[in-house]
Amino acid sequence: MSDQPDGLDYASSGVDIDLEGASVASLVGALSRSVRVAGTPGAPVDLPGGFGGLIEFGDNLLALATDGVGSKLQIASMMNHWSGVGIDCMAMNVNDLLCVGAEPIAFVDYIAVPKPDPEQHAAIGASLAEACRIARVTLAGGETASLPGIVTELDLSGTALGWLPKGAAITGANIGAGDVMIGLPASGVHSNGFSLVRKVVELSGLSYTDSAPFDTDYPGRDIIRMGDGDITLGEVLLNPTRIYVDPVTDLIDACRAGNGPCPADALHGICHVTGGGLSNLLRLHDSLGWHIENPLPTLPEFDWIQSTGGISDREMARTFNLGMGMVLVVDSVHANTVCEWVTSRLEGTQVVGEVRDHGHKVTHCNSDIVFEHY
Known about the structure:
CATH superfamily of the largest domain: PurM-like C-terminal domain
Number of strands: 12
CATH topology of the largest domain: Phosphoribosyl-aminoimidazole Synthetase, Chain A, domain 2
Oligomer: single chain
CATH class of the largest domain: Alpha Beta
Distance between the termini: 22 Å
Strand content: 15-25%
Radius of gyration: 20 Å
């Protein structure tokens, strides 16, 4: 990995993660509490971390998450390759629901365009249908808005609904020093950091339709193709975000039913590694720290992005998943059995580190990678 001081970073490509965090905090601070009172349907349930929102609903809780595909859509537009973007949109939402212990059950989408295009919409519809199949959810509705003068190209976002039994939320509150971190492999860049990705591609002088300038053969994943011949740079970058419903929902259900690899209360936390990279771990607990000693292998596209852009190790780990899209935090007594169970469903899963009482920070076997705030 590179540590060049004068290379690119996410802020120079137009996205300042720290500024976004401050802006979100300002927005949240200005919001009022729900008018729904505790004990009634729709009343809010406090949940640290912010991976999803919980509300009361009788003997159960409902969970909601909303997100979009982001500037990855600009590459899809350049290549007229839409078969993965619906999966991206679904994944960015349902994966967040998994982090609170919820089973995703329904989804609605929102598409904004400067001008309707039936062929484009049909391709996105097919992608959303495939996403529903993978995530095991119902597409319960959606909205398409034509907004000439407001949007200049297609934007796609959505909202996912999930449920879980009351009292069964996975909040991170039970995380303790010595807990083990199990990393689940990513399928690619997923759906964040693309402002920086596009800047790197521009710097490289390559076209998205050129053959990928790195080895695209990687165990445990397939690239969605546009045609025959060499796999292109654009095809690798557009490979959709992995949806982790299988195996994570099945793991949670089996543990709650008493026939899984561990008791349900041994699953202490789940982290979706999205924007902010490894710093997302800090969202799970307000005082404990995280140490990654045995990281998952870095996907080849990340090595190329880093070397081409001269990006530092810390900036890469702050911006991208680097090959690990989700982390399970498990009681150390059951970590090996949980890891074996998940590996049987998802090749490449492995123990990556542990929770430490060394302050509220993320540390790494690479000493340059340290995060003390999300």
